[in-house]
Amino acid sequence: CETCSKEEAKYRCPRCMKYSCSLLCVKKHKLALSCSGVRDKTAFVSVNEFTDLNLLSDYRFLEDVGRTADAAARDLAVHRPTTSRFLASLRNKALKCDIDLRILPIGFTKRRENSTTFNSTEKKFYWHVKLVFPHCHAEYTLKRVPDDKTLADILKPYIDPVESDPVVCQRLKVYTASPRSDIRILMKMENRQRNSVRYNELDASISLLDNLKGKVIIEYPTLFVVLKTLKNDMVVLGQDASEPSESSDSESSSLSSVEEGEIRDSS
C-alpha cells in the first residue's frame, strides 16, 4: 500500500495508478493528491501503445458524450431560468416564509455558485448551504438541502463520530471528540457595520426553514459551527460583549473573513 506502507495492496486507482490496501487508504490518497479516482478517458496514448481496447474506450466515450448532451437538452433543470422573473419569484416565496432573501448582481461568487431552488409541487425550498468549521479551518458546500431537515441531521455526516466519513471525521476531530452540548451553530447577521458584527445562534433540533425565519439571507445561508469550550470572539446577539483585546480582534476578523471575502468578490 502506497498510503500506509503497512498492508498488502488490494486496489489500484484507475486515475493515478496508486496502490491501496483499504477503503480508508483509498480516501486518504484521494484527499492528499486531490485525486478523483475516475479513469481519465481523454489521457494521451501514443500510437505505439494504442490497442483495440483503447479504440473501444474512445468509442464508448463518444457514445457517453452523445447521451449526456442529449439528456442535458431534455432536462429542464439544466435550463433553469435565471431571469429577473425567476429571482423575483424565489424572493417572494422566501418572503412568504418570513425570510428576507437578497440576490447579488451577476458576477459575484455567491451569485454564480448558488443552487437554491423552490419545488412548487412539494412547496419546499432546496437550499444551497455552506458549513464553516472555524476551529479546523474547514468548510463544506451542500446542495439541495430540503428546508424541513433539522440542523442536527445536516451536521451528522460531518461531526457524528459514527456516521461521518472517516476522512472528514479525522479532519474535524476537535468537533467529533466534543460532546454535542458544546456545539453551537451560528449565522452572521447581515446589514450591520463591520465593527459591529453579530451572530444569531440557531437551534439544531428544529428545521432549517424554522431557523431562517425572520432573518436576512444573502443568496444562501452560511452556518458557522463553533465550540463553547474553545475561545472565539463571534459575538452572539443578546450577549453582553465586553471590550475585546487586540489579539481577540484579530481572531474575530480571521473567523469572519471567509464569507466577507466571498461577498466582496466580483468578476
From TrEMBL:
Assembly information from the UniProt record: Interacts with FBL, SNU13, NOP58, NUFIP1, RUVBL1, RUVBL2 and TAF9. Interacts (via HIT-type zinc finger) with the RUVBL1/RUVBL2 complex in the presence of ADP.
GO cellular component: nucleus; pre-snoRNP complex
UniProt name for this protein: Box C/D snoRNA protein 1
Region (Disordered): 239-267
Domain HIT-type: 1-35
Pfam families cross-referenced by the UniProt entry: BCD1, zf-HIT
Keyword Amino-acid biosynthesis belongs to the record: no
Gene name for this UniProt entry: Znhit6
Keywords linked to the UniProt accession: Isopeptide bond, Metal-binding, Phosphoprotein, Ribosome biogenesis, Ubl conjugation, Zinc, Zinc-finger
Keyword Amino-acid biosynthesis: no
Function: Required for box C/D snoRNAs accumulation involved in snoRNA processing, snoRNA transport to the nucleolus and ribosome biogenesis.
Family statement drawn from the similarity comment of this UniProt entry: Belongs to the BCD1 family.
Taxonomy of the source species: Eukaryota, Metazoa, Chordata, Craniata, Vertebrata
